[in-house]
């Protein structure tokens, strides 16, 4: 038996319960992992509240790191003792141990700690596919990125700097502005004190930007569209303030704009794609161009408190649970 966070109904953080669960031996193509650090992501809130449906009762969490305890038949590329991380597969990362499909596991380099890796697997690979695949950036580009001091955002700040990209980032406090700047964000806008559309136009000499990465959703949608150049692209990569609804006629009126709502699974699979993405991320980390450590840490039993902090925007950067 082991312990895991489960929820039997959707709702607020209080629905999360620490329960004892059975973890069996891995079957064909499977591996049993003992977790050492578990990532907390805003998508976890969507599942807990029911915005993203799941069969109940359910586990929670989509990515974590740990040590391989046992390997099932047919798995030849992993052995007990290997350090691994994952970001795909069934919900249930909020647990001390679990059985996972081997094909979604990524071996971790020796130079990256478990705590650091827990902030990188989902969030770092999200930055990779946003910047390198969804809208491939190049040196000299200027972009707008919302929530620049968030878990993905701080990695995005550093990745933009490594690429030679000028990143304009929005944040909700002066403290977060300083943190985003320290991580490589060239221009930081405190949206609580400044009109981000006006500031983007000022920074770009009235031209706007070719791409906006918007994980906020409903509250920033119209402003994001107004920051785009003609034929610009809105990458809608989250909806923390509510779902996005767009009248396509508006896209034509504002300059033949493009909108995409990307999903990790469509960029990270099949497995060779995921490993290539991880290699690029880990290379930047090992070179020191991306540094990522958890800014907040909670015990597994405190998962509800972690969610309260995340939803109230009290967190900066990445948050992890420690089993």
Automatic annotation (TrEMBL):
Q: Name one Pfam family in it.
A: ADH_zinc_N
Identify the SUPFAM superfamilies for this entry: GroES-like (SSF50129), NAD(P)-binding Rossmann-fold domains (SSF51735)
Extract the InterPro entries matched here.
ADH-like_C, ADH-like_N, ER, GroES-like_sf, NAD(P)-bd_dom_sf, QOR-like, Quin_OxRdtase/zeta-crystal_CS
Source domain of life:
Bacteria
Q: Which PROSITE patterns match?
A: QOR_ZETA_CRYSTAL (PS01162)
One cellular component (GO) term of this entry: cytosol
Query: Which one of the record's GO molecular function terms can you name?
Result: mRNA 3'-UTR AU-rich region binding
Q: What's this protein's name?
A: Alcohol dehydrogenase
């Amino acid at each position: 038996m082991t312990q895991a966070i489960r929820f039997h109904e959707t709702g607020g953080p209080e629905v999360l319960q620490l329960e004892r669960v059975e973890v069996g031996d891995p079957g064909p193509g499977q591996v049993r992992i003992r977790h050492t650090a578990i990532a907390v992501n805003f998508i976890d809130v969507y599942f807990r509240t029911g915005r993203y449906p799941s069969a109940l009762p359910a586990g929670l969490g989509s990515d974590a790191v740990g040590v391989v305890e046992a390997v099932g038949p047919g798995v030849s590329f992993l052995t007990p003792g290997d350090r691994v991380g994952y970001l795909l597969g069934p919900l249930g990362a909020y647990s001390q141990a679990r059985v996972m499909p081997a094909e979604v596991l990524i071996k971790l380099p020796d130079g990256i700690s478990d705590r650091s890796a827990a902030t990188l697997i989902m969030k770092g690979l999200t930055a990779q596919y946003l910047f390198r695949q969804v809208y491939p950036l190049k040196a000299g580009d200027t972009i707008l990125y919302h929530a620049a001091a968030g878990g993905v955002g701080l990695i995005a700040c550093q990745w933009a700097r490594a690429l030679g990209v000028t990143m304009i980032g929005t944040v909700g406090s002066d403290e977060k502005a300083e943190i985003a700047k320290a991580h490589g964000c060239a221009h930081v806008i405190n949206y609580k004190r400044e009109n981000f559309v006006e500031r983007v136009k000022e920074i770009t000499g009235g031209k706007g930007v070719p791409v906006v990465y918007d994980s906020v959703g409903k509250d920033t949608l119209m402003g994001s569209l107004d920051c785009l150049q003609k034929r610009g692209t809105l990458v809608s990569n989250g909806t923390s303030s509510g779902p996005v609804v767009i009248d396509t006629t508006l896209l034509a009126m504002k300059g033949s704009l493009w909108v995409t709502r990307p999903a990790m699974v469509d960029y990270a699979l099949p497995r060779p794609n995921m490993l290539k993405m991880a290699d690029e991320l880990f290379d930047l980390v090992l070179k020191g161009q991306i540094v990522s450590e958890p800014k907040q840490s909670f015990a597994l039993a405190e998962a509800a408190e972690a969610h309260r902090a995340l939803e109230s925007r009290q967190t900066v950067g990445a948050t992890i649970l420690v089993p």
